[in-house]
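Cross-posting from the modeling subforum.

Setting up a comparison between two proteins and wanted a second pair of eyes on the formatting. Protein 1 (sequence, then structure tokens):
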Amino acid sequence: MGKRIISQRRGRGTTTYRSHSFHFKGFTSYPRLDQKIIGKITDLFNDPGRTAPLAEIQFGKSKILIPAPEGVKVNQDVSCGEKNITTGNIVNLSDIPIGIEICNIEKSPGTGPSFCKSSGAKATIINKGTKITLQFKTKKQRDFDPKCRATIGIVAGSGRKEKPFVKAGKRHHAMRARGKLYPKTSGVAMNAVDHPFGCGRGRHMGKPKTVSRNAPPGRKVGLISSKRTGRRK
């Protein structure tokens, strides 16, 4: 009898697949949309659930957390809602000049940081009109509301991938801190009874890896309800 595949076992909610959220420092957010205030960075610290350090900013009686941009420091003053293009400031997209690198971008006005929150992430404004067009590091472009806000600068920790893990134990502890399953066994390395891609004919699926959105959990692996396949031209 075969074993359950990972997509089936995840649904049980056991500690193997549960994120260790009790270690996480908190949610990222911005001040209210109508506020124009000046705050101060009170602390910079690591969050086990993120790849970038967090900056704690005191705005009056309230505190917020955002992924820290490169170059900011403790006791630095930062503004929100002002037209001050300085690293660490929170500015409306409509007030940011074309070509400036930004991060912690809102999906819609007032929702808080949603895009470019991981270490080294950034986007650049390439066009301004009724919508603001941003280009990400992947060269993908997306339109945003001019009232959406973003942080000036690049998220800190961009050199994270340059240092190798070297030992499997270090990788294990890094993945465990974020609640990620490690190591993972490839489906094509399994037996046919244990995974739809497994077989005894080498590391090959032996069937198309596209699967219907309505497939049962034991079969829903690979490119789930993919719009297209093949190499882009």
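Protein 2 (same layout):
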Amino acid sequence: MRLSIVTTLYNSSAFIEEFYRRASSEAAALTNDYEIVMVDDGSPDNSLSIAIELVRKDPRVKVVELSRNFGHHKAMMTGLEHAVGDYIYLIDVDLEEDPAWLTLFWKTLKDRGLDVVYGYQIKRKGDWIERLGGAFHWWVIRRLSYYPIPENLVTARLMTQQYVRALTLHKERKTALGGLWALTGFRQPGLPVEKGSRNNSSYSIAKRIEVGFDRLTSFSEKPLILVFLLGIFIFALSVLGAFYLVVLRLTGTVLAGWASVMVSVWMLGGLCIACLGILGLYIARIFIETKGRPYSIVREIHRAEGKNA
């Protein structure tokens, strides 16, 4: 198998057929030996039935049906595990990312002897709130992560089978795929792309915040170091404050009022809770990982009759 195109399905019924048409056209222009792997991530709409109908029409389509919804990143990793092509093109199905990028990525990878070519946005899509939130997210990641995670990544990327096999060695159940892409290494430059936009994105604000925490706690222990330094700073400050109060009392100054005491108690109490919360995030990750649960479960693989791979 020369080329595999991998995508995931979740509330994607409106895009599947158009994606299939455009992706097939791009792949056929490069090679006749290709497959399209669609991972149904427990989609509540009729995405699965539409994809299975494509299997009946085109033996190059393969549908990996998960037993339930496991999440976008885990579904993508599952799709990569089932891709058998020498080169694997990962892309979202919703057509915000143009399947035509495959030709550009292919030419760049082959001409320069690379392992991966990925897309990134020079200017983030969306309204000012989304752009501002994204800019703040990447500002935090750049300063707290030990690994140089590229900014404003998109899903679309062309990878060699060697890189994908190395990538799928990672078995974290709670992670952020963008960090794993960078952590795996190999030669992988980015190309600027212009991503489209649609109004009903499946990534809510809460989901974006969750991904941000996953990305941070998966690839950096700097928050724990900051908590330790904050504790040392507060302790030193309290010692200086206590010494100052003793000096005032010895010089005859009467200290009255409980407002400052209550404010200090609430401030330090909130700070302790926040620090415990950061520690709790890391402990929770340890708890999840020690269970050794699979990050996805395949219910069934739909492929053309008589086709084993």
